[in-house]
C-alpha cells in the first residue's frame, strides 16, 4: 500500500481550476504478469519528505554531478520538453553512477523540473516515492534524484525509442508506422505495468495513462513513466478514492470526470483510449478531423462491435498485417475497456490475458477473399494507400524522447 504519499498528491499541479473544481486545459487469478511483480516493503503510515527520500533505493545526486553528466544541460542534449520542464541526455558510470564523458558509461535521461513552486515539488516527490519503491519490467527505472536548493531533478534509465505517442502520431523518416505485432506487444507491456500497479500488493492508481507516458526501449518493450499524478487505491471496504479531477483531456473516465471518484477502472478506461489510438492511428482528441470525428471514442464506439465496420476504425497503414480474428478481438477489448459503467469494464489482469491470446493469433498472413472484400468495402481502393515500411525493419532509426501532450486536466 502507498497511503504514505496521499498528502503529496493533494492539490498537485493546480495550474487551472474551474469554479466546480474540475479544470480543463486545452492543450487475482495468476497470469504471467505475477511472475514479474516485485516491490519493497512499504510502511502504511504517512511519511515525511525526509522519510520518503531516505527509504528509496536510488541515488541522491548533487546538482553539479548532473550538470557534468548532461554537459551543463546543453540545448543539444535536450531529449524532450513538457509542462514539467525539459529532459536531457546524460552519461554516468554504470557501477559508480558518477558522471562520465559523452559516449562513456551508460546513457541516462535527466528530467529537470521548472521552478514553479511547491506544486511541482509535490509531483516530483510523488515520483520519487512510487518509482523509488516499485520495480517491474514495465515501469521505467528511476536511478536517482537531486534535491538541492531550488533544483528538483529526476534521473531515469534511457529509453532509446522514445514515446508511443511519437511513433503513432509523428511523421517522417525517423517515425515509420509501428506494425500490428509491435502495437500489440506495446499494448501488452503497458497492460502488464498497469496490472502490476493494481495488484493486491501494490494498489496504486496511475491516473495519467496516455501515449506520451508509455516509453519504449530498444526492443519496443513498453514501460510506464511519469508517476507525478499516481495515487493510492482505496483501502478496506471502500470502493473508490475521492479526489479532484486530474489527468489528461480525452483519456479520463466519464465517471471520474463527473464525480471525482477514482478507481482502478479509471485506468482501464484510459487504457481503452490508448488501445483505440493504437488501432486507429488517430489521437484521442483531434480538432483537425471532420465534424463528428473530433473525439475518437465517441466516433469509433459504434464501429467496434460490428465485424464489417471495424475496418473503418483500423489504421489503413496496417493493411494486411493482422487477421480478421485478431482485429475483432482487439476492437472488442477496446470496447469493453471503454464501457460507460466502470464496474462492467474488465480488470487489467483480464486485459493482459486477452492481449496474450491476441499475440498468439497468427498475424500477417494473406487475407482470404472474404477479408479482401471487406477491406475493399471499408476503405475503397487500396491503390491510393502509401506503402510504408514497419519499424520492425528499421531498428536503427533515430527516435526522439517523448514530448508530452499539453492538454491536461488539473486539480
Automatic annotation (TrEMBL):
<keyword id="KW-0547">Nucleotide-binding</keyword>
<dbReference type="GO" id="GO:0004674">
    <property type="term" value="F:protein serine/threonine kinase activity"/>
</dbReference>
<dbReference type="Pfam" id="PF07714">
    <property type="entry name" value="PK_Tyr_Ser-Thr"/>
</dbReference>
<dbReference type="InterPro" id="IPR008271">
    <property type="entry name" value="Ser/Thr_kinase_AS"/>
</dbReference>
<feature type="region of interest" description="Disordered">
    <location>
        <begin position="16"/>
        <end position="49"/>
    </location>
</feature>
<keyword id="KW-0611">Plant defense</keyword>
<keyword id="KW-0808">Transferase</keyword>
<feature type="binding site">
    <location>
        <position position="111"/>
    </location>
    <ligand>
        <name>ATP</name>
    </ligand>
</feature>
<keyword id="KW-0418">Kinase</keyword>
<dbReference type="InterPro" id="IPR000719">
    <property type="entry name" value="Prot_kinase_dom"/>
</dbReference>
<feature type="region of interest" description="Disordered">
    <location>
        <begin position="376"/>
        <end position="396"/>
    </location>
</feature>
<feature type="domain" description="Protein kinase">
    <location>
        <begin position="73"/>
        <end position="359"/>
    </location>
</feature>
<dbReference type="InterPro" id="IPR011009">
    <property type="entry name" value="Kinase-like_dom_sf"/>
</dbReference>
<feature type="compositionally biased region" description="Low complexity">
    <location>
        <begin position="16"/>
        <end position="41"/>
    </location>
</feature>
<comment type="similarity">
    <text>Belongs to the protein kinase superfamily.</text>
</comment>
<keyword id="KW-0067">ATP-binding</keyword>
<protein>
    <recommendedName>
        <fullName>non-specific serine/threonine protein kinase</fullName>
        <ecNumber>2.7.11.1</ecNumber>
    </recommendedName>
</protein>
<dbReference type="GO" id="GO:0005524">
    <property type="term" value="F:ATP binding"/>
</dbReference>
<keyword id="KW-0723">Serine/threonine-protein kinase</keyword>
<dbReference type="GO" id="GO:0006952">
    <property type="term" value="P:defense response"/>
</dbReference>
<dbReference type="InterPro" id="IPR001245">
    <property type="entry name" value="Ser-Thr/Tyr_kinase_cat_dom"/>
</dbReference>
<dbReference type="InterPro" id="IPR050823">
    <property type="entry name" value="Plant_Ser_Thr_Prot_Kinase"/>
</dbReference>
<dbReference type="InterPro" id="IPR017441">
    <property type="entry name" value="Protein_kinase_ATP_BS"/>
</dbReference>
Amino acid at each position: 500500500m502507498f497511503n504514505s504519499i496521499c498528502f503529496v498528491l493533494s492539490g498537485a499541479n493546480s495550474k487551472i481550476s474551474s469554479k466546480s473544481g474540475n479544470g480543463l486545459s486545452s492543450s487475482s487469478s495468476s497470469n504471467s504478469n505475477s511472475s514479474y511483480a516485485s516491490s519493497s516493503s512499504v510502511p502504511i503510515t504517512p511519511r515525511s519528505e525526509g522519510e520518503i527520500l531516505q527509504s528509496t533505493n536510488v541515488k541522491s545526486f548533487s546538482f553539479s554531478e548532473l550538470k557534468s553528466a548532461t554537459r551543463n544541460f546543453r540545448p543539444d542534449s535536450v531529449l524532450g520538453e513538457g509542462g514539467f520542464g525539459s529532459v536531457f541526455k546524460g552519461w554516468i558510470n554504470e557501477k559508480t553512477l558518477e558522471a562520465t564523458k559523452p559516449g562513456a558509461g551508460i546513457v541516462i535521461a535527466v528530467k529537470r523540473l521548472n521552478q514553479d513552486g511547491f506544486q511541482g515539488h509535490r509531483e516530483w516527490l510523488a515520483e520519487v516515492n512510487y518509482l523509488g519503491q516499485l520495480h517491474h519490467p514495465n515501469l521505467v527505472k528511476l536511478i536517482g534524484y537531486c534535491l538541492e536548493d531550488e533544483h528538483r531533478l529526476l534521473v531515469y534509465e534511457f529509453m532509446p525509442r522514445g514515446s508511443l505517442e511519437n511513433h503513432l502520431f509523428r511523421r517522417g523518416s525517423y517515425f515509420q508506422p509501428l506494425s500490428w505485432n509491435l502495437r500489440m506487444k506495446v499494448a501488452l507491456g503497458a497492460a502488464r505495468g498497469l496490472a502490476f500497479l493494481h495488484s493486491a500488493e501494490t494498489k496504486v492508481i496511475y491516473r495519467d495513462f496516455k501515449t506520451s507516458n508509455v516509453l519504449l526501449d530498444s526492443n519496443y518493450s513498453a514501460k510506464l513513466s511519469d508517476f507525478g499524478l499516481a495515487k493510492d487505491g482505496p483501502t478496506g471496504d471502500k470502493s473508490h478514492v475521492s479526489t479532484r479531477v486530474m489527468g489528461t483531456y480525452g483519456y479520463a473516465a466519464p465517471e471520474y470526470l463527473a464525480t471525482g471518484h477514482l478507481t482502478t477502472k479509471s485506468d482501464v478506461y484510459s487504457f481503452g483510449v490508448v488501445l483505440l489510438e493504437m488501432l486507429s492511428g488517430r489521437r484521442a482528441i483531434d480538432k483537425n478531423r471532420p465534424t463528428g470525428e473530433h473525439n475518437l471514442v465517441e466516433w469509433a464506439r459504434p464501429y467496434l462491435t460490428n465485424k464489417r465496420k471495424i475496418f473503418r476504425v483500423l489504421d489503413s497503414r496496417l493493411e494486411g498485417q493482422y487477421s480478421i480474428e485478431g482485429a475483432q478481438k482487439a476492437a472488442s477489448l477496446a470496447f469493453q475497456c471503454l464501457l460507460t459503467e466502470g464496474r462492467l469494464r474488465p480488470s487489467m489482469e483480464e486485459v493482459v490475458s486477452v492481449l496474450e491470446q491476441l499475440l498468439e493469433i497468427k498475424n500477417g498472413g494473406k487475407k482470404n477473399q472474404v477479408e479482401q472484400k471487406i477491406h475493399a468495402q471499408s476503405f475503397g481502393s487500396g491503390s491510393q494507400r502509401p506503402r510504408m515500411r514497419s519499424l520492425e525493419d528499421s531498428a536503427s532509426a533515430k527516435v526522439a524522447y517523448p514530448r508530452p501532450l499539453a492538454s491536461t486536466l488539473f486539480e
